């Protein structure tokens, strides 16, 4: 069993060392694919300390020098279910990226989409020792937050201060060196299933890789898919992956809520496989080349040759109309989007000043989604692509790589978390999920 609090602190230290050495790998471990990018940090750009709490002010410049992707094995619903298969897939992706980069890496920062993430909004308050807020005061207010009893089988993955208030001034990014008497803090905490983290760490150790960071994939996908104004004013990122659909809400450039549905693009492929009685490989090809969710008058006449590998000529030469294919795909996509809408409503998303929703992930590329999604989620919906970063190959610039690119930004621009401060960990009474958005309802 791991002590993730101490592990997180050790990983932050390892990340600094790896960046100072000049190269680190990021690994997006998904249900349908595993993507690996190798980042190089050069010369004067190796700055790893932020200047403001959670502000991503310490921007470390990097360049992608290696990239590779491979089909996932041994992973279902974003969680490892066959260690040897997952190990083999991770080795394949990392070795291919290393070969392209012509460098060996020992440290990796990984993201995971499974583990059934749960969000908590925490609050704490202390009296300032002296008249000027010090780092010790920040540590004490973080320690005073009322940590809920989240269960012995779960671990804290992220614990980030999202708002500080000093006396009657709220919305402070960094209260240090400011004059005041009472310091309050609102924090967002995200927990995941402990076993999922332990299995991933075990897989990486078997690959002779040291874990230098761990992040929720919905969080890092939003970092790369949301533009700066969206992160500031309030936006949700819906990461439509293979086995899961991740949800993250940002406000004032901080994640204030995260969740995940155990449904994704693989479930659409399964529906096609069952509906047309073809293998998963054939169903995936049909979905990629002919799939869609909005039928037009032409779709009744557009015939798709199914093709197959059964050896039965009559069965393999069948044709279906595109309208029939859309009739199989659309109900599942609608189900996913309707469940997303329910989760956003439960999180209080309607209270944000801006209700922008950005769709990303591999399944967001399905034809017609930009027309269907606004009818279910609201009018402010767009399909997002990850930010361009130096050296990123053209093949890795699509929505499916938002998680991998976001991990690169997470490596270079880390937000402060509570294990970055010398503070005791305390437990308290549980609090409602709605506390995650309480502070901006009151203050903005």
Descriptive overview:
Strand 13 and strand 14 form a beta hairpin. The protein has a domain at 118-191: Dna Ligase, domain 1, CATH 3.30.1490. Strands 3-2-1-6-11 form a five-stranded mixed β-sheet, with helices on both faces. It is built from 13 helices and 18 strands. Helices cover 34% and strands 26% of the residues. The chain is globular and about 85 Å long. The protein has 444 residues and is an alpha+beta fold. The protein has helices at residues 4-21, 83-101, 135-143, 194-206, 217-225, 228-233, 265-276, 280-290, 313-316, 322-346, 369-377, 402-412, 438-443; strands at residues 23-29, 33-40, 63-71, 75-76, 79-80, 107-112, 118-127, 154-166, 169-172, 182-193, 210-216, 235-240, 245-251, 254-261, 303-305, 319-321, 356-360, 381-383.
Q: Determine and state the CATH class of the domain at 118-191.
A: Alpha Beta
- Report the major sheet: 5 strands, mixed
Number of helices: 13
Give start-end ranges of low-pLDDT stretches.
Answer: 44-58, 424-441
